[in-house]
Every structure is written in C-alpha cells, then in structure tokens.
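User: Can you fold this complex?
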Amino acid sequence: MTRLVQKFGGTSVADVQRIRKAAEIAVAAVAEGHEVATVVSAMGHTTDHLISLAEQVTQQPDPRELDMLLTTGEQQSIALMSMAIQSLGGQARSFTGGQAGIITEHQHGFARIKEVRPDAVESSLKRGEIAVVAGFQGVSDHNELTTLGRGGSDTTAVALASALSAERCDIYTDVNGVYTADPRLLHEARKLTAVSYEEMLELAAAGAQVMNARSVELAMDTQVAVRVRSTFEPHDTGTLITHHLVSPEYTICGIACDMSHASLCLTTPMVDGSHSQLEGISGLFTRLKELGIVTDMVMLLAREDEPSQELAFTVEKRSLLRVQSIIEALDRELGHPKLTVDTDIARISVIGRGLTARPAVVADIFESLFSAAIPVQMVATGDIKVSALVPAKHARDAVKSIHNRFEL
Amino acid sequence: MTRLVQKFGGTSVADVQRIRKAAEIAVAAVAEGHEVATVVSAMGHTTDHLISLAEQVTQQPDPRELDMLLTTGEQQSIALMSMAIQSLGGQARSFTGGQAGIITEHQHGFARIKEVRPDAVESSLKRGEIAVVAGFQGVSDHNELTTLGRGGSDTTAVALASALSAERCDIYTDVNGVYTADPRLLHEARKLTAVSYEEMLELAAAGAQVMNARSVELAMDTQVAVRVRSTFEPHDTGTLITHHLVSPEYTICGIACDMSHASLCLTTPMVDGSHSQLEGISGLFTRLKELGIVTDMVMLLAREDEPSQELAFTVEKRSLLRVQSIIEALDRELGHPKLTVDTDIARISVIGRGLTARPAVVADIFESLFSAAIPVQMVATGDIKVSALVPAKHARDAVKSIHNRFEL
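Assistant: Here's the predicted assembly.
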C-alpha cells in the first residue's frame, strides 16, 4: 500500500460540482489501494473576496487579523471536500492546518513551515480515512493562526508528503502539466513529460503559475517526487518533477512570462557620501526581507559619464505601495534618489541548464527580440535563467519569437 | 475600571458598515473607562449560506464536518471586527472559540460549554486591547471544533462574562429591548425596563427571539446581569435581565409568538399491550434527547369513550423530518400509531409569575381567544407559562386579543 498526497488548488474546488470531481479522484486512488491525504485550497475566488472585505474595513489590515480572516477559506473547503468524499461512500476527516500539525514560524502573511507533526493525519490514514488538510495555513508555537503566502497550499502539500514519507505528491490544477511556454499565450507550446527540480524552480520563480516556487524548493530539499496534473483530465499523467529525469532531452526547457511585477529604478547623484548610499541600499533590502517582499532582477550600475548611480529591481505589483513608502522613509540614507516606476511590463524568462556556459543563448534571446522589434528594458542572467523586461503589450510576441528561436 | 462583555448578533454585523457601528460601540465603552470583551456572531446570513453549500454536497452532512464549516462564519466576523476597531484607533485582538478557552463537550452541532479558561482573554484585556471572541463555537478536549447550536453566541457571551467576572453582559441586537409582545406583530407592545431571569427564560423558550434560552439559564445560574439593547440606538439602555427587579410591577410580563414549530399527534388504538406502548414512548423521547431535538407541550391523553391513546407534542419544524423517521423506526414499539402533523401553526405563550396559582389567567386566555373566534388546538400550562397552539393565520389576532385582555 503506497501513500499519496493529492493537492487540489482553488480552481479545482471552485464550486460544489468541482469539489465532487476532486473527491472522486481521491476516492478512486483509495480504491486502487493507496493511502490518501489531500491538501485543499480555498474555493475559487474566496481569498480575493475576503481580502476585498478586509479592504472595505481598512486600507491597512493588521496581518494577524488578515490571517484570521483568510484561513477560513480553506477551512470551508476541507469541510465540503470531506462531506463530498463521505457522500461518495468514502471515509474522510478534515484537518485545519493546526490540527494537521503544520507548525510555522510566528510571522503573519508569509510564514515558513518549521515542522510538520503528522501524528493526527497518520492515525487518520491508518483508520482508512482520506485525511483532508487545509492548505496555505498553519499555527505558530503560540497557537496563532498563520498563512504561508500566495500559493502556500503547494508548500503544505509537499511538506506533508515529506512528513508522511509519501511516494508522491500530485498537484492537481487546471492545466495538465508543465509546458515549454504558457499554452494560453502560445499555441505551439509543448508539454514536458518530466522536468528537474532546478528547472521547475526557475520556471516557478519566473512566473509559470503551475506551482509555487517555495514548494518546488522544498520538494528538491526533501526529495519529494511531484506530479503536476489536471483535475479535469485525471487520466493524463501530467509532468513529473524529480531529480531522476526520464529523458534529459533539452537544454532550454521552457519560457515563462510574468505580468505581475513592476520595475523600480532609483537614480542617485554620486556625491561624496557614496558609502552611506550603500548603507541605505542595504537598509532597504533588509526592510524588504523583513516584510517578506521578494525582489528580482536586482542591478546596481554606477555611470561613468555623469557621476550618478542607478539601482534597479522588480517587485510584485501588490507590494509596490509598501516598497515606495519604504524608499521614502529611507530617502536621506539613499541619498535622495529620483524614483522611476514602471508597472506596464512583462518579465520574459528563459529557463534551461548551464546557460552561463552558453553565452549564445543570451545573444539568441536578444536577437529574437530585436528581430521582432521588441524593446528590452532590463536583462538579468543566471545559471539556469535569463530574464528580460519588455513592455507588457509585447509580451505575447516576445514569448513567441523566443519559443520559435529555440525550436521548443 | 469595570469590565463589560458586549455581544453583537448576526444582524449587528451583517455588513462592513454595521461592523464599523459595532466597533464604535466597543471603542466608546473603552473611552468611558471600561475593559471590553466582545462576542461576535457570523455576518447576517452567512451561516444559512454555508448550510446551503453543505446541502448541495450532501443531504446528510456529517455533524463534525458541518461544525468545521460553520465555525468559519464567526472567524470571519472577529477578524473584520478587530480590523474595524483598529481602524478607529482602538487596540483589538481576535480569538477563535478555542483560543478564547471556550471548552465544550465533545458533541457536534449542539455542544454544551464545559468550562471557560479565560487566561488569554484576560491578558488581552490587561494589555488594554478589546478582546474580540468568536461566538457560537468552542473546542472539545480533543481539539475538535464544536458549535453550540442556534443562538449559541448568547451563551458564549454569558459564559465569558461569568468567567471574566464582568459587571454586565450587553446583548446588542436589532431591537432595543424585551417587549410585552413582539412589536413587529403588535404595535401596542410595551418595552420592559427590567425582567427576571425566570420570566426571560420562559419568554425565550416560548419563542421571543431576543435571546437564546440556554444563555438566559446560564445567566441565571451564574448571576450575570444581562442587558438587551440595540446596536442602532446605543443610547437606549434597553431591558435589564436580573434577579433584582427594579419594579416588580406586573404579574404577566409578556406574550411570545413562535411560528417555527410543528405539532405531532400519535393516535394509538388501546389494545392489551398498553404497557409496551409506554416503552415505545420512552424510547422515542430518549432518542430525541440524544439528537438534541427539543420537544414542547408534551401531552398524553387516554380516551375513555373509544379505547385509544393520544400523544401530542411540538418540535421545531427543521427537526420534523428526523422526528418522523424516528417514529417510523419505532412503529412497532409505539403500537402502530396514526400520525397527524400540523406545520401551519403558531404557538402563543403568556409569561408571568405564579400562573398556576391564578387559574383565572388560563380562563382569560381562553376567553379572549374565543371572543376573537380563534380556534385553539392545544393548551399547555406551567408555573410561569401558558401556551396555546392556534392556526398560523390567526397568530397576530391571538397576540393582540390576549395583549388587550391583560392590558399590557
């Protein structure tokens, strides 16, 4: 008897009919002889609805109270999912994050899982029940309700799979696997049968919305095999994410496009106190880290021609107001910079292996964008990812031209 | 510095604007020098919406999973209420039933509070915060989420007031006190400035929807002074419920009308086995008690003229289907009775003190109904309550004629 963790995202439990579909998948896995724990997200747009309720009350909801509010979304899903399994004749028992032993750091809105104490879930599985666990949430040592941040249900699923020594963690979503590019953007995109943790990590971080990046990282660290598959086509085996690649057939595995980021550029005249400016920059990033605001494409450029320095980076648009107020607060330490913000951008990322060893890849990207007459605002290169910022309206063309260039 | 518990019901927190209104009341009490704990119900029709979601999944939701689902309603309210208090400049902290130390029996759907461990709420009050506690819910010793049944938030408020040794428990609702009859039914109804626990208990049990009966009982047992008042007219002092009546001016304190019950009548031919029928009746009531189904106006009548026996009682309409199936299951033990059900009835109750010592009261009730040409189906008398069942369409006239008769 093997053990499976199945995670059902928001679109997979968006209404009662879909919840029943997800319940059927879990019940079928039990009938095939598996022990099954499921991790469930909030129904469809529940989380967004709750956030909008909070924003009607106050523009700056207290993070603790926001967690108190948001955790109700998954709690509703687990109850309904358990009822659906029971109505199909299966046995089920729901668990809030706390009841499932998901212990997190004491930090609201983006807590990290410290530990999973799976005893209660283990007992449930041994009784032959399908354990239905609330994703995205946990409790701190002080019995405070916490949330793991957007996409946190994936992290719950992987952490639980690791704690239960599950054979595999199946991420059920509304697409049937990981593609070389977003199939909604690009019709020619090809589904991958397998992908390595490292590549998936970069794809996720670059905005491929299939899986949350932190959860891929955790899967890599804990060696949990993950399968991304579709709730609506349960017989499709989707894409396997693992160390052991079935066929390492490609160097460049995919292209991701992310429209949720904004770019910021701080231009500072270089006077004597350049050292104190670095202190300001360090202060800025410390503060961003404390608030759990993730930055990407960080670049620092000192211009030779005129004595000025430019600091550029991207952040998620939803963090933009907070980032701007932090910059204002650090205005003196940062040397009174001029701030330029661009929200109308797309970040196109090419993911592969050993890209730094292949400078031709970067050249190819530039060339394909150039030949499509797409202006490039910023480029950042890493070992397995090259990202370029382009105006949002060119996003689709940029993906298409790069995809064609590399014949994915 | 005195301590207050304020309870805000579903209509008082039905939307964001009303939540802000409730928050203002709590903040004002702190400004007047009180320590304040609030108990909050689910917003408006949230509970009904959640029940309907569950019923879309299955006609017989598991009680444990239903509690898991329903407890999210109050959890949303406490988060939003805390945010509202904070946005008014107050300090607040929300508590689920479990976090507030509301420990219940391990029984889903209608758990009784075993104990309140108020340490966390005490600490919150001492830090100067308004503690915002989820009504209607608690946890069992096994860390299972439980609910207290309809109107359970009142019980939470009274139990918390007792555990915190609060000076008073203010029940904020959509009416500004307890009336001699439902003012929506009868324009002449008069607001009482004070009423005894005993009378309020009978009024509540008889269907006056101002307060839940169990909570009044608890207030009586724990000597918590309760004030029923309006969220929308916070300067009105409402009705005080206490042992120490300010002016014991009346014998009959009010009339209640309840349309939520159905009457059942079981007619059994009296053959030899009348003893075994009593066993069946005893089995029936044991089963009803186990399921937490409350009966009222229970009467057993053996007819002399023809050898038959009639058992009549009322139950809440929402329990009717379950009661009917229990009766079917006990058909043999009950002597194959003929069952008559009437759902189109109103139960009119007259509440006062020492009614059995005043048989004239019962006579007056009959006379006033008779003179209004209202047929009476059943009458039950107690020490402080006389109830009569009349056809639903005559409810308003029955209340009016009795109210006039007693010059309330």
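Residues 246-250 of chain B have pLDDT under 50 and may be disordered. Residues 46 and 59 of chain B are 19 Å apart (CA to CA).
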